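new request in #modeling-help
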Amino acid sequence: MEWVTIVDPPPSTTFYAEYQNTGPGSTVDQRIKWADYRSSIPEADAGKFTVKDEQQGGWIRMYPLPGADMRRFVIGSARNLLHRSHQNSLFQRPLLSSSYRLLSSSPSADPSSSSSSTMAHPVALNNINPKVLECEYAVRGEIVTLAQKLQEEIKAKPESHPFEEILYCNIGNPQSLGQQPITFFREVLALCDHPAILDKSETQGLFSADSIERAWQILDQIPGRATGAYSHSQGVKGLRDAIAAGIEARDGFPADPNDIFLTDGASPAVHMMMQLLIRSEKDGILCPIPQYPLYSASIALHGGSLVPYYLDEATGWGLEVSELKKQLETARSKGITVRALVVINPGNPTGQLLAEENQKAIVEFCKQEGLVLLADEVYQENVYVPEKKFHSFKKVSRSMGYGEKDISLVSFQSVSKGYYGECGKRGGYMEVTGFGADVREQIYKVASVNLCSNISGQILASLVMSPPKVGDESYESYSAERDGILSSLARRAKTLEDAFNKLEGVKCNKAEGAMYLFPRIELPEKAIKAAEAAKKAPDAYYCQRLLTATGIVFVPGSGFGQVPGTWHFRCTILPQEEKIPSVVSRLTDFHKSFMDEFRGLV
Amino acid sequence: MEWVTIVDPPPSTTFYAEYQNTGPGSTVDQRIKWADYRSSIPEADAGKFTVKDEQQGGWIRMYPLPGADMRRFVIGSARNLLHRSHQNSLFQRPLLSSSYRLLSSSPSADPSSSSSSTMAHPVALNNINPKVLECEYAVRGEIVTLAQKLQEEIKAKPESHPFEEILYCNIGNPQSLGQQPITFFREVLALCDHPAILDKSETQGLFSADSIERAWQILDQIPGRATGAYSHSQGVKGLRDAIAAGIEARDGFPADPNDIFLTDGASPAVHMMMQLLIRSEKDGILCPIPQYPLYSASIALHGGSLVPYYLDEATGWGLEVSELKKQLETARSKGITVRALVVINPGNPTGQLLAEENQKAIVEFCKQEGLVLLADEVYQENVYVPEKKFHSFKKVSRSMGYGEKDISLVSFQSVSKGYYGECGKRGGYMEVTGFGADVREQIYKVASVNLCSNISGQILASLVMSPPKVGDESYESYSAERDGILSSLARRAKTLEDAFNKLEGVKCNKAEGAMYLFPRIELPEKAIKAAEAAKKAPDAYYCQRLLTATGIVFVPGSGFGQVPGTWHFRCTILPQEEKIPSVVSRLTDFHKSFMDEFRGLV
């Protein structure tokens, strides 16, 4: 018997409770009116909105009547009133991580953290923007906070834990784990940062000839060679020319530098599009489940509704257009205007690579349904299976004969991923096609408010789209560095995939691309009970136990969304190759002892 | 007789029309109910909301009854329904620039720009986020678009205009106008970008010894020396340590590195705070008028209300606490919850520097009224008057004995300004003090969604707060570069100020700091009529004529806000010193011929 309590609901509001009965793949909705629930509540709980969840493996969403002022009671701000008086790990928020926050709480609930601030400061949790409260970002969430704490403890007292270092497999941050930057790229960046050395003789000895030449070329494209000046709001025109040329070379279809908006990594570009498209919680964005939590966070911050579509784990995280259609119809029947479809290809956290035919069907679907296609293509260089190839959605749609007038398409790219992994440089772009000039003007205006993205990031974005070519002095070393990184990533992915599949109760799909594995884990009933006792979702509990035992940081599947009742975690393939055997053995030992601990009946 | 028309108002809504009668300084509000207006409208205009403005020199705002769904009819999204069927320059939106946009327009109104896109694309002006439409950003607005067009024309055909180049005085972008970066800073950045050269012997010949030493120090503070890795969401801890030490040295009061959030320039930090504080249009932010339009843009994007307070031009743009109190009360009487006070010191666009006593009164006001003090201190190094000194609001509040518990204070700093002017590097930080741990956690979470700011910008932010010291090898050259830039800026400010004050009908306050002058211009009645005929605000008309005649880009005062009925423009003091005489003579000649053209009676 599990309880979910909302403290102090607005008195005059009528609620629905929405149940979802789940086995994997099934999504049977059941709506039960609050008033019907209310009658079953003990008098002691009067004044609270208390819902009894007796459906094992299901989940609950609660919201007032559509049209009411607080329509998105749970999905929106008021979800923060939620209080799990008795913790229930089976009460699973499908897209969000496992910590609940309390706005107006009973006195017993954690008085230390908020009450003092509420008294002393004009800004408190109960008067900040509820969209901020709503937003969650699991890959830097609770588990990472714990990891940072452990790291500090190890630093202070090296013997304090049974491991020597924290291994951050929570985030696609290759260079933090030892991946070296591509020399040519860094040479050019350094020269553009300090052009005064370009014509010094010593520079010849330190830098490759083509990096010097490239730096001159780039500087000549920047008005006044001023790498310290704000650029055009979309980025330096000459750098956008180089990127457009790179896209053309990749796709075999023309690209227009005026369609390119350079951004500080891909994240601000995603925010910009969400900001443009979302007017209210009645606007929905179709997002894959599991998804990269930037999307759920950005949609929450902009006050829209995430419309989930499920990737099919059984077919290697397949993306079925029939599922898209079903979820689109469901959303529409609830009064949601679906504005856009997010596709992450190669997938994050799933690593799957879409087949070209599949992509065509997706393009057709967006065209037919009038949806903007938001194509997250930041892992376009990260493909590890020789039989498959990355195709950009722009190439696919153009190859279908669809142009500017037919499909609104935004492609996101970043310097943080690929073989370059330059996360700290915050470079990236979006290519915006199929929008009217008037709407483009609005995107430009929003870009202008932040003036421009950082110039080093802009330069790097142009470099990754126009790396050294055969015959350039740096080509050989460049391609050796690139191939070394990519082939090592492929080996690491395979080794980890195999290791996961050897673990009891764990099943891991093939990593075709990106930087992650997202294995599914069947947890013993006793472990689930232990998680409940620890007030954790079972996958979060597993990840926390793994971290405290081994120093390895995985992110629980609940941070990305998963079919309710299933449990996963995301693990990057980024630990350096020499560390992989130790990761595998630490993981294997931990898993065995964890399963042994919870084996048997409850 | 002037007309303002709203096409297709929601039929069942009751409007107020709010008039403001203005002479400079006077703010008499008059509210007239829509129904009373309605009776005076000719039958041909039925179905429109038409307001006749017969009050010369005044301005109008219109909105439905408070509490109605579309309460912010004009201030908010529906303002975009506004159609000025007969252009009236005296109808002045106090905070916004001069272009109106039309959502659902009569067929005659500019069918080319929007109709084709509306048909072909799912995203059109009438279905994007109205907050995006609402937002305006004048310093990269219409006048800059025109300047870019002229620049392209000159490039294509050098003799096409009576000037050889466009002189961008619209934006504080020093290096775009030839200012050179500080050598030491760039040396360190280059070395951190390409650490592989740090221990090469040639490097000793190219870089100063202390830049090499500093680069090592910085790299040692970055885990794995990985400048290509995402950092902590608030920025690299060691760099925050350096910044905190710099703040301590500046203020004489302690600073905590955990209070520092490194950001891509100051703009994202401002957005972050607006995002945190603004829940709806009922939340207001007190902003100076004139203001830097980042604030109006950010408030619009986050759906809040800008509560204006006027700086007193007559007393050198004085900031009177009595004016703050008056505007706070007015806003509260309208049901606005005022959350924060924005103070820009030194002022943008006004250039004034606040006296310490004045700052104390402001701190006291915020404390008493429970307002967050948002202190834009990005021009802290830009002070040109020896008798005045910059004091940070943190120092002032600490010197009053106010600590964490007493005042919520956010200070913004940027690498784009000061003597460094590194706009393209997008570095900056905010120091967040006086917030509870729970709210701080929320700020951290929002910072995490974008992972981190760019590392070069982070490094640079630490460098500007800890530049070379006496005894360091680079100190002499560093301080010579710094002093050269600052003293030249002071001379340029004075020369331009004097030049403006010599122009007929122009009055310019002393530039005490920052990078701008904001002179007031009295325009002849005939020029105002000509502006009306050209469908421009008079100051926008003047700036456009100046641009097409001389190539000099100023921003009209209407982009920053000004006392209704007064006209200004903002001009940066950044053209290189050798160009200043030519700027002055081109401006003087233009102004004389402009005034001659419009001299005499209408």
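bot summary: The radius of gyration of chain A is 25 Å.
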